[in-house]
Structure formats: C-alpha cells, structure tokens
Amino acid sequence: MPRSVAAHHQAVVELLTGVPANKGHLTLPLLEALGKVLAVDLYAPLSLPPFANSQMDGFAVRSADIPDGGAELRVAEPVPAGAAAPALKPGFAAPIMTGAMIPEGADAVVPIEKAIPNTFPDPAVKDAVVELPPAAPGTYIRERGSDIGKGTLALAAGTLMGPAQLGLMAALGLTTVDIRQPCRVLLVTTGDEVVEPGQDLTSGKIFDSNGTLLEASMRQAGLEVVRAGISDDRPAALLAVLRRHTGTGADRVDLIVTTGGVSKGAYEVVKQAMADQPVEFLPVAMQPGGPQGLGTFDGVPFLGFPGNPVSCLISFEMFLRPALTQVLGTPAPRPVLRARLSEPLTSPEGKHQVRRGTVESNGTVRMEGGAGSHLVHALARANSLVHVPGDVTELAEGDEVEVWML
Amino acid sequence: MPRSVAAHHQAVVELLTGVPANKGHLTLPLLEALGKVLAVDLYAPLSLPPFANSQMDGFAVRSADIPDGGAELRVAEPVPAGAAAPALKPGFAAPIMTGAMIPEGADAVVPIEKAIPNTFPDPAVKDAVVELPPAAPGTYIRERGSDIGKGTLALAAGTLMGPAQLGLMAALGLTTVDIRQPCRVLLVTTGDEVVEPGQDLTSGKIFDSNGTLLEASMRQAGLEVVRAGISDDRPAALLAVLRRHTGTGADRVDLIVTTGGVSKGAYEVVKQAMADQPVEFLPVAMQPGGPQGLGTFDGVPFLGFPGNPVSCLISFEMFLRPALTQVLGTPAPRPVLRARLSEPLTSPEGKHQVRRGTVESNGTVRMEGGAGSHLVHALARANSLVHVPGDVTELAEGDEVEVWML
Predict the structure, then answer these.
(1) Cross-chain Cβ contact A170/B50 below 8 Å
(2) Residue ranges of the MoaB/Mog domain (chains A, B) (predicted)?
C-alpha cells in the first residue's frame, strides 16, 4: 500500500529535524540577509517611536488651554524636525510637522486643516495667533514605545528576513544581523541517457534539465547547492561522488538529493548504490512523483527523487520545500488559494494528483499540458500547482480546487 | 478631489513605459538569470522529447503482434537507456525503461505490471518469453515533439525566468540566456530628523528604516538600487544628489525614488527641490500613503513617496511594484486571495485603506497593529496587505476582504 502524501511529508520533516542544530551563525550587513533566517532572538535596543511625536502636520497644544468652543492661541516658535523641542508655554500653540517631537507640556495635536487660518504663519511675523478647536489629550500623538518597547522581543529566532524585518532592524539602529548558515545540499542527476546542456546530443540521449530546475528551486528556497553533475548508471561511480561529500571535511553536505534511479526498472542506480544504507524506496500515493527514496547515506540525510523533470519539481514542492519551511523557517510557504476549474479533470483513484495550471485574474485555473511528467515546456507556462486529492476521480468545469501559487 | 488608486497606478505605468527601451541585453549562465527577465523570443533549437520514448518500465511491442486475447512474445535484447535502440523484429517484445528510445517497428509499450511474469527476465537467459495483453498503437509512448516542436516559440521575450523556465532552457540544451539589463533606481531618504542606523541617535532623531525597507523590496523586485543615503531638508543638497545621477554618464539612473518631503508641512524638501520640474504632488485616495509625487526630474522618471515607513512600503506595493510587473515583466505579481476578517474594521470614507495582516491557515486574517503608518514592528509581523475599498467604512468579523500575500 503506497504511503500517503501527508505521511511522506512528515517523514521528510523528521529526516531534516537534526540539520539546523549542526549549522553555525553568520553576521551579515542587513541587506545581505534578505531571504535568510534570523539565528537568535532579537530584543529591541530602543523604543519605537523613540520619543512622542506628531502624527499630523498641525499645532501642538496643551489640551486644557482649549475649551469646548475653541480658543485663540498665540503661535509659538515652530518645532524643528530632528531636534529637541523647547517646552510649550501655556496659551501657546506650536507649529509641528509629522514625526516631530511633541514639546514638553503639549499633550495633543490639532491638524492644520482644522486651524483658522488653515496655513502656517510666516515665522517672521511676530505675535501671530491661531484659532483652534478643542482636542482630547493624546489626540494625534504617537506615544514613545507604542510600536515596540525597549528590551522587548522584536524578532524571534527563525524569522525569515524580508524587507519589513530588515526595515525594523534599521529602525532600531542596527546595521548587522545574525543569520543561520544556509543548509548545504548535494544535487546529483543520474542516468546513462542524460547529458549536460551544451554537449552533443547523440541518439537516445536527453539534456539534463533536472539539475537546473532543482538548483534554481533550491537557491530560491535559501539552500546552498553543491552540484556534482551527472552520474551514469554505474553504482560505484555514484558512490564515489556521494562519498566526496559525506566525510568530516569542508566538502560535507547537510543533505543529498538525487534524481532518477528509484523506480522499478532493471537499472536503478540510486537504489543499487543505497543497498547497504538505511534508505527506503517506496511508492507515495501521488502522481507524478510516486516513487521516492528516503533515508541516510553514511549518516547524511538523503532524498531520492524520480527522474522526470515534472516529478522532480513536484517532489521538491510537495516534500522538501514545505519541510524546509517547517524545520528551517525558510522559504516562505507557497500561497494557497482556491480556484474554479476552467475545464473538467479526471484523476486516478487513490492517488493525489498534482497538475500544473495557470490561475487567471478571474479566479479560474486552466491546465497547462496533460498529466505527463516529461512536459517541461508546459511546466514553464504554469504559474501554479493544482491539487486533486486521492479520493477524487472526476471534477467538472467550475468545481473548486486547491491551488499553490509558484 | 484626490486621485483614485487605479488612476495613480496607471500614471506610474505610463511614467515607466519608456524605461525598457533604454535597457540593453546581458548574456548570463542559466542560473544567474534566476528572477530576471528574458530579453528576446526564444525558439526551440530541438524538439522535446527529442525522440519517441517510453512512458513506463515495460515491453516495447508491435501492437499488431498481440491479438485481443493477448500473446506470448519472445523477449528481445533490452533497450539500453541513452543509446539508439536496435529495430524490433516481429514477434518480439523488448524490455524498455522509462525514457528509453522506442525501437524502430515498435508502436506501443505494455507496462511490466501487466506482463506474465511481471519481472524482467535475466538478460543471460536465452529464448525467454513473456505473455502480454494487447495495447493500442501509441500506448505509453511519448511522441517526439509532443511537449514542444523544434523551431516553435519556447519562451516569449519578457518572461520571468524561474526554475521551470530555466529547466526548459536546459532541456533544450542551452547554457546561457539573454536577459534585460535590470532597471537602475536611485533611492534617496530625506529629512533633518533621519540618521543612518549605527550612528548616534540624538534627541528628536530617528533611524532611517525607509532606505533598508525599500532597497530590500526593490532588490526582491529585480531592480538595481543606487543608494544616495540621507538628504537633509535643504533643497540645494537634494538637488546636488539627484543631479549626480541624471547626467549622460555611467551614473545615470532609470528612475528616482525619494521618501518624505511630499506632504503639506512647512518644510517639504522634495516639493521644494522639484519646483521647476514637471512633477505633480497630489493626494491619492489611499491610507496610508496618500501624499504622492510623480513626474520627471531632468527627464528621469521620478516618484516621491511619503516619509513614514509603512506609507513607503505601501506606496511601493500599490504603485511601483505592480507597474514594474506590467512594464518590465518582473517581479511576479503578489498572489491575491480572499480571507475572512477575524475582527471588525473601520475605514475612512472615500479612502482605499491598506492594513497589514496575518493570514492564518484557516483562511482568516487578523490585523497587525492599527492604521498608523509608523508601526514598523507591526509591519514586520504581517504576511499580507488587507484591502478595504474607498466606499466601505465598516466591516464585521467574518466579512471577506481582498488580501495580497507579501
């Protein structure tokens, strides 16, 4: 009985669980940490905002100076942006710009639009006055620490550092960030029939697309990829490649991913090379990407993906990518949405089918190519993966399906 | 009357329309083109698959050899993967693995599971036979060119190069790709109150988070960012910075983005510096991010964002990012979905409000922080932007809203 998609996903999560503990930290300038994962809890070294400031362009006032009917106040010196504000004397209103410090004594801001006149007086004019409506204490004031208080947790270890997280660190005055060293993965394509792009393509051969497809996917997911090129169908050759990266030296990787050689054919090089290792080869109830290998090779976590390009990509998206998110905190999960089918679909009973589709702006999704796992041109047109659960064999046009945006 | 969000978006698209024509091409190795945009139409230099091959592990047969009731056929030499297959003689069935070339004369594949016996015979055994059910011509054969035919359009100019697109290029045997040179943007933060992270924070000052927030966002969107640091509130200083990047030399940029100095305060440095330029400063019916500047500075497209960090980010996400997608083909658009509010919301009439939220796995979205545009810690917790259209002033818990995933 094939393993369920959920059970295999869980097995991949468990396989990777020990990886982060082996990884050190790196200190990087903020912008170099974009897309990487915070290694430590980060506490705010100062409060944000660092001082009470105005939310509007207007007049800083003492609220008690203005009765219900409004009041005419004398105009004080404007509060300069970026400097300590002088205290506000009773009976005065100080012109203040958005973000400028609230003067001592002031406890509210009246927006310029509500003032009469509703423009700021020329600073050269002496003894200017302004008529203002009343304002409750605190009106249009951003209190010190109202976004985050000094010493409180700003970002938790494991946070994925995007623009907003890096922007917060800058607002806190920080210039560097401690991130986790990326996970290193060895990627090996296998098969006598596979040749490197740019080489001669003789009869019966195909170019290796899996290496590029997976390396690009892994890079986007924050992994450091070690490419070992193409290994042919001799188990000894594959073993030699793997063993260069499983010793104790600098070439050691955290994870091995192979493509091909895991199915039921007569020449399954990955299966053969793993014969003495604690590696399981098993069918997962999924199409494409059914045959999967999982275990450890000389103690290094190992995943064996099938050989077709679409199967590879779907193995990555269904198992490795979500497990990385769960265990390492990066990459961000694929956005999940529901879309209406623009065409009917059939799916084999008992298998979770993952089709490639294009979600249109009207909320429908159409298929790109058929179910075939070799359709790499169709894959390149798709913007999403379309899920048909194992217990569903037929869907009509207009039926809703779950879609993962690529 | 403020300009609508849609009208301002359209104005930004028009502002950027001339930019791509000024940009040259770059030839890069495939993986370095990840996230960049294809500069030219790409036609397939070969067909995919390059030859008819088997979709299954099984036996290649001449379909005419097997009558309705099945037949016993002699087992031919196995088809070696990665080599030209010898022609199949009548009355024979050739063991064949997934992806191997269909031998001349064969026109169908019977999967190994349907064979009796259902395992491949030892190649050392002479005169082996196998009993096979009938198969219609074409069964389990992937025809040459069924994914894409030689000479047809594989990828159109303007395609964003992700893993699948690069994987397709590798499958076509290509090792380099012509991409568009990235658009260069000059990013200037303004304000007397703003200091660089890492400097001393004296009274009334704040650290510049806009620079980091926007540079990170722009890098993720595929722009090349030129940082000009912080310009204070003297228009002459800002003009000097801008003019270093608008000449005809190598420092020239394709776009200028400033933050701050576009509102109704008394010291609006960007407004003052643009006084002689064809630049409009106008309110957009949006909160936050209402005050916007748009035009050209010495002929270079210019956008003036407001000064609060959340306003900056929302200006980028609402106007610049979608316009880049439309005009340059990159970045990929934000996934749009609908989510149910986990709390009631109010919104000012006539303004499109953009709140920050976290979409949960159960399809609900909760707000991160209030409406205030200074809440950069709240922004760093959010995974999405929540849209409340201008004609909506109240929403109840459970109401559906449009959400853009960040």
Answers:
(1) no
(2) 186-326
Instruction: Tell me which chain B residues have a C-beta less than 8 angstroms from the C-beta of A171.
Output: 197, 206-207, 209, 309, 376
CATH of residue B375's domain is: 2.40.340.10
In angstroms, what separates the C-alpha of A405 from chain B's closest C-alpha?
Answer: 7
**Record: contact B197-A170, CB cut-off 8 A:** yes
Q: Is residue A148 part of a domain?
A: no
Is residue A147 one of the residues assigned to a domain?
no
Looking at the structure of chain A, the number of domains it has is 4
B114 neighbors B83 (Cβ within 8 angstroms): no
Q: For residue A266, list chain B residues with Cβ-Cβ distance below 8 A.
A: 57, 78, 95, 97, 120
Distances in whole angstroms, Cα of residue A31 to Cα of each of A162, A252, B212, B255, B380: 9, 28, 7, 21, 15
Cα A239–chain centre separation: 34
Are B341 and B365 in a shared domain?
Answer: yes
pLDDT digits (tens, 9 = 90+) for A1-53: 899 999 999 999 999 998 887 788 999 999 999 999 999 999 999 999 999 99
A149 within a domain of the structure (yes/no): no
Are both A168 and A313 inside the same structural domain? no
Q: What is the pLDDT of residue B216?
A: 98
**pLDDT digit string, tens, across residues B182-232:** 999 999 999 999 999 999 999 999 999 999 999 999 999 999 999 999 999
- The domain that holds A312 is classified in CATH as 3.40.980.10
- Give the residue from chain B lying closest to A113, CA to CA: B264
Indicate yes or no: CB of A147 within 8 angstroms of CB of B99. no
Closest CA to A197 of B261, B325, B172: B172
pLDDT digits (tens, 9 = 90+) for A336-348: 888 999 999 999 9
**Record: contact B216-A34, CB cut-off 8 A:** yes
3-state helix, strand, coil in chain A (%, to 5): 20, 30, 50
Task: Tell me, yes or no, whether A293 lies in a domain.
Answer: yes
Do B308 and B190 share a structural domain? Answer: yes
Q: Are residues A63 and A121 in the same domain?
A: yes
pLDDT band at A265, cuts 50/70/90?
Answer: low
Nearest CA distance, B162 vs chain A (angstrom): 7
Domain-ending residue, one of B291, B310, B328:
B328
Same domain, B42 and B66: no
Q: Do B190 and B289 share a structural domain? A: yes
> Do B248 and B384 belong to one domain?
no
Q: Which of B206, B227, B354 to mutate to test the interface with A (most CBs of A within 10 A)?
A: B206
Measured distance CA(B222)–CA(B220) in Å, rounded: 5
Q: What whole-number distance in Å separates Cα of residue B166 and Cα of residue B172?
A: 10
Provide the number of CB pairs (under 8 Å) joining chain A to chain B.
303
pLDDT recorded at residue B98: 85
Which of B401, B405, B299 is CA-nearest to residue B342?
B401
Residues of A in contact with B202 (CB under 8 A): 84
Choose the mutation target among A155, A374, A375 for the interface with B, i.e. most B CBs under 10 Å. Answer: A374
Chain A positions touching B383 (Cβ under 8 A) are: 332
Cβ-count burial B91-114 (b if 16+ within 10 Å, e if not)? ebbbbbbbbbbbbebbbbbbbbee
The closest CB to that of A147, out of B147, B205, B376, belongs to B376
> Can you read off the two tokens belonging to residue A140?
């249009």
CATH number assigned to the domain comprising residue A159:
3.90.105.10
Q: What is the tens place of the pLDDT at every residue in B222-270? A: 999 999 999 999 999 999 999 999 998 889 999 999 999 998 766 789 9
Question: Residue A257: pLDDT above 80?
Answer: yes
pLDDT at A146 over 70: yes
Cis geometry, peptide bond prior to residue A111 (ω within 30 degrees of 0): no
Contact between B192 and A337 using a beta-carbon 8 Å cutoff: no
- Per-residue pLDDT, B111: 95
Tokens of A66: 């203005």
Task: Name which of B28, B31, B147, B150 to mutate to probe chain A: the one with the most chain A Cβ atoms within 10 A of its Cβ.
Answer: B147
Q: Which domain holds residue B400?
A: 336-405
CATH number at A128 reads: 2.170.190.11
Regions of chain B with pLDDT less than 50: none
